[in-house]
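Recall the central idea of this unit: under ordinary conditions, the amino acid sequence of a chain determines the structure it adopts. In this exercise we apply that idea directly, starting from the sequence alone.
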Amino acid sequence: MDVRKLVVGVSPTKKLYLEDPYLREAKAEVLVARKERRNVYIVLNRSIYHPKGGGQPTDLGFMRGEGFTVSLKKVMEVRGVLVHFGKLSGRLPGQGEEVNCSLDWERRYLIMRLHTAGHILDHAIRESYGRVVDTLGANHGPPEAFTEYKAGPPDLEQIKFIAERANEVVRNGREVRFVYVTPEELPAKARGAPNLDRLPPAERYRLVVIEGINAIPCTGTHVMNTREVGFIELKGVEETERGFKLYYDVR
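Accordingly, the structure predicted from this sequence is:
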């Protein structure tokens, strides 16, 4: 199905996870529902589910209403509208119906910890290399978390330094918060952030701020304090065509 046709004339979805990533349940209204075999595409007026994108994997969970249940397989964003795709059990929900949305919290919280860990590693990499190192890609979630950096691979001493510096930030219990800034404010506010020159034009940008560490444009979900990350374990380094991938996990 062409999901672009599903969102024609539909207002942008209110993204509840941007304001409260710890929100596990919410009610929402069905705007569009289209069945495809045993699956369904659903557009809601608001959503707790983060889509795949920005280095973060899709959220999973359930939508329930009278006579139906949807087990989410993926969430996509199309022109500001979130399209939820999943297995349908029961009848097809109708436009205007209320649904009860619940999040796979164990998966989401792991993603939050991994994504914040990724931002901490950006800082440790910057300190190790003595400059801001741009990123080429990332997966801040299961099954394997990594960030790809545009630089030569670190040696063993650098890897040790990066791990120690990152976990020092975790142990220090830094506050993690978000703020919105204008394009004019961005260069001064986004301290230590990679890839600023690749950002698309926008009226405002959301910065995820780790107090005293960095401030990075990001629409992902994060923990409120670095202590929640636990411990960052570096799993390996893989040289790539344009740089290297740093694999990591949290525990």
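The longest strand covers residues 25-36.
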